[in-house]
Amino acid sequence: MHKIRKFILVAIFSVWLIGPRIVSTQAQAAPTVISGAGDITPIVEAYRGVLGPDNGGDPGSKLTGRREINWDKVPDELAAPNFLPSDFFNALAAPRARGAVLNTPGQGVQASSNSNNPTKTLVRFGNINPTYADIFKTYSAERLFSHWQQHR
Questions:
Q1: How far apart are CA 89 and CA 75, in angstroms?
Q2: Cα distance from N-terminal residue to C-terminal residue, the chain
Q3: Which of 4, 12, 73, 138 has CA 20 to 30 A from 37's CA?
Q4: Residue 98 CB: number of other CB atoms within 10 A?
Q5: Is residue 37 part of a domain?
């Protein structure tokens, strides 16, 4: 029994001693930096290209590619002034099985309304402050996303 304990202790010590050297000799890829201003369409496409193909909203793990969250597809009844359910993009079925759960220490998260919403809520969080509709710009459509916490 003493020999087994000694062997286990030597094996653990060897891993502890040699392990960092093995890890430190592995080549590390340089980070890819993508940045831009103005019309960011080509920058977004370059970023997508680095991440790989869009895996869509089908459930399950994928070995390569990316999943995108599309705020523009949030239905009106779940957009401002309403809160978006935290698991909206973590459905069990396509097209919303994106694997994202959105939690906040605030009251919740919101996607801003679009111009043809049935409640006539102002776009781009104009329901919070009417000037926001003119200040905030979007990449696509009218929906923005933000966590929500009412300040007193």
A1: 12
A2: 67
A3: 73
A4: 20
A5: no
Are 86 and 101 spatial neighbours (Cβ–Cβ below 8 Å)? yes
- Residue 7 CA to chain centroid, in angstroms? 46
- CA torsion, points 51, 35, 132, 81, in degrees to nearest 10? 10
Number of domain units in the chain: 1
Q: What's the predicted TM-score (pTM) here?
A: 0.67
**Residue 78 domain-assigned?**
yes
Q: Which residues of 59-73 are buried (b: 16+ CB within 10 A; e: fewer)?
A: eeeeeeeebebebee
d(CA 49, CA 46): 5
SS3 state at 84: strand
Question: CA-CA distance, 19 to 79, in Å (whole number)?
Answer: 50
